[in-house]
Amino acid sequence: MVVDQSFNIRISGQRLGLHEFDFSVDDSFFSAFERSQIQTGNVSVHAEMDRKEREFDIRLSLKGRVDQTCVRCLEMGQLNIAAEERLFFELHPIDAVEETDDEIIRLPMDLLELDLSQPIYEMISLCLPMRFTCENVGQNCDPEMEKLIQGESNEKMDESDAVDPRWEALKKLK
Length: 174
Ligand SMILES: [Zn+2]
Hints:
This protein is α+β, with helices and mostly antiparallel strands. Helices cover about 25% and strands about 35% of the residues.
């Protein structure tokens, strides 16, 4: 995965204490993720890291908007999103990194930088409704498009009915 802009936080040689970082997510960010449910959007991300000797916790907060396509009428809608999350990390010798912990993410001791693009992407994805419709952004669906799409899916259903053996039998009766 390649993201144009860096979403990395320097770990190696970083002094202890509080550090703050700002990132901005744009269209290129989403295109770096295969099968992304989001293609376009603008999201500001703020990260606060409390660095200790071997542990550090990062508070991520984000705010912005992402564009989604209505599943009913295919209109684009701008969805406002906001989310906060806290991540805990711990540095470990390389042979102990594989041991998992629910709360704490283990990282190798010699890690230079921590890439936050994956957690940021997951946070944004969790803001999306299961099925985005115009209602999610307080809009009404385009009734013409809705009718058209409804018609198309009915047609598709007819096609699959055609392979139904009962239909085949009826055809023979003609
Ligand atoms: Zn719609």
